[in-house]
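Suppose you are handed only these lines of text.
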Amino acid sequence: MPAISCSAPGKIILCGEHAVVYGTPAIAVPVFQVSSTTRVFANPSNPESGVWISAPAIQLETSLSTLSPLHPLAATARLVIEKLNIHSIPACRIKVSSTIPTSAGLGSSASVSVSFVRALSTFLGHPLDDEMVNQIAFEIEKIHHKSPSGIDNTVVTFQHPVYFQIGKKVQILKVAQPFTIVIADSGLKSSTGDVVSGVRERWLSSKTFYDSCFDEIGKITNQIRETLEYGRIEHIGSYLVKNHELLKQIGVSIPALDHLVEVAMLNGALGAKLSGSGGGGNMIALVNEDTSESVSEALKSSGAVNTIITHIS
Ligand code: PMV
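From them, the structure of the protein bound to PMV can be written out as follows.
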């Protein structure tokens, strides 16, 4: 019987990705159809056995003491015990599982960090609060993605739509009118850190152009925020399309994602864009509830390897 089990959702970025790294706001929402779960099983009958970690999805089966301190799970465990100011973890087996595809913009690494921190700190008798969980998950995101903005760990920690801007207190968004998104996976893996580094290199050599794109994306994010809060959901579609165009201009889209965006629009979506770092991964389409199935089917028959229909409220 697991002593402790904690889960955390995946996420999508509705608007503002990449520009958010340069200080403009972005909006992200949790996706509960996919999740990570960390279970901790106590092993009191064998106190010398130490801490055993298994994560079958990444073929990890090892004792914590032999894991490199730079491994994200080892670093997470270290940060938890540092925050709790304890010296060691009692003998236990920690099992990490996840249904979130990796390197696809759905927040897999942030979700694993959040479920791991919550499960381990609860097992140790001192469940960390959201602020602490978020701080630790952000540190681990830096190992995974070099220089992340922190939006992924924030939305996954708070599990609500968030309006996020670096250096500002996160704002939980109240969505006036629930809406439906189809998420479609291009099936192409992409490294967030590499795509973000590529944008930085291009920004360094064409700052004026890139800064004006980031400004435009920031404005779109604010327009979407207002629209979400005042319940004029149908207006969001055109903002998503503009956001996708700007993401194309900064060089993070790929033909497979552009194609899926086009297919969604031709099949009645109100708007569509890539979501996350781009270079592969997922796109999202805003749909009416009655078109969600047909848009999803059209995306699957046009190359998407998987789709998720999610309702945001
Ligand atoms: O983890 P992804 O692929 O959803 O990308 C995160 C969004 C970026 O803006 C591209 C990077 C960041 O850290 O904000």
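What can we learn from it? The pocket of PMV is lined by residues 13, 17-18, 20-21, 105, 148-149, 151-152, 192, 196, 276-277, 281 (CB under 6 Å). Residues 11 and 30 are 4 Å apart (CA to CA).
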